[in-house]
From TrEMBL:
This is CG12093. GO terms for cellular component: cytoplasm. The keyword Signal applies. InterPro entries: DUF3105. Keywords: Signal. Pfam families: DUF3105. Residues 1-22 form the signal peptide. The lineage of its organism: Eukaryota, Metazoa, Ecdysozoa, Arthropoda, Hexapoda. It comes from Drosophila busckii.
Amino acid sequence: MYNLQFIVASCLLCATDIICQAKTIKKGDAFLLKPYQELDSWKGKYFPYAPGEPHVKKVQRVQLSPNAISKTEDTWKGPWFPYAPGVPHSTPKIESAEEMGHRICDDGMINLKMDYDPEDVRQNFNYLCLTSNRSVFDPNMNTEALLTEHFLPSAYEPASKCLNESISYTHQPPTNGPFRPVPAVYGSYKYLPPQRYVRNLAEGAIVMLYHPCVYHGQLKELQDIVNGCLYRHLITPSLSLSPKRPLVVLGWSRSLSMSVVDKKLVAGFIKQNAKIGPLAMQNLSRVVEKRETYKAGLLSEAHLVTDLDDTELCGYLEQHM
């Protein structure tokens, strides 16, 4: 009897467990998501893609008729930067030094080879002593100094020529005539062509020339005199001088040639001819530090004696004569 009750109870327990599991499954099935087609009621648009749609880029091509393109004319009349519409973007051409030299009249730096090329070693002969007998240049006390003046009409105006024109002179060494527009910086040069120093003569400078083979003692003495007399001076070698008188001091249209330096004679020439010329100005100090200048071959700049206007000429020198 006991076993029968036990069997019945076990059967009831098993049946109850099966029913509970079935209810649980059924109840759990209510929470399972069904396909979105049945559950999703959204009727609008998805961005960028609807669920389940493959991610493929869509390109819509539209064929426009020629009449659909606007033909409105541009009324802008001003300049465009950097290029106007339709103008090809070309790289600007870089000028060579030679091309720039033809375009620039004279700036003291470009196309200098027209008169003298300081970079060309073949032109070293302008300042070298190449003679085998230097004794012919020795000072001679019996050779008198020679003062020369080249007369010019009162209405004469020297021409200022650009570097695309050659310049020649009627006498050597030249003391007047055409010249380059840009003056040389005052001082001593390895070599300074006459086309430059004539420009400085025109504004009242004193130019000292010496032959490269001259006796060095006489050269030093004349340099000291010129350096001590005025600021407005230039010193350069020149092959145009003769062995008989290898030292020369120039003013505008005048020259003093010597074999032996005479201090009083040189100082008198400077005082008589300095600051005289068609371009001479009393107030040189106003422009001398602001203007374009030529300085190729410059060894040393001139030092002030009194001031840039050379108010007093050879004053210090006369005290020691």
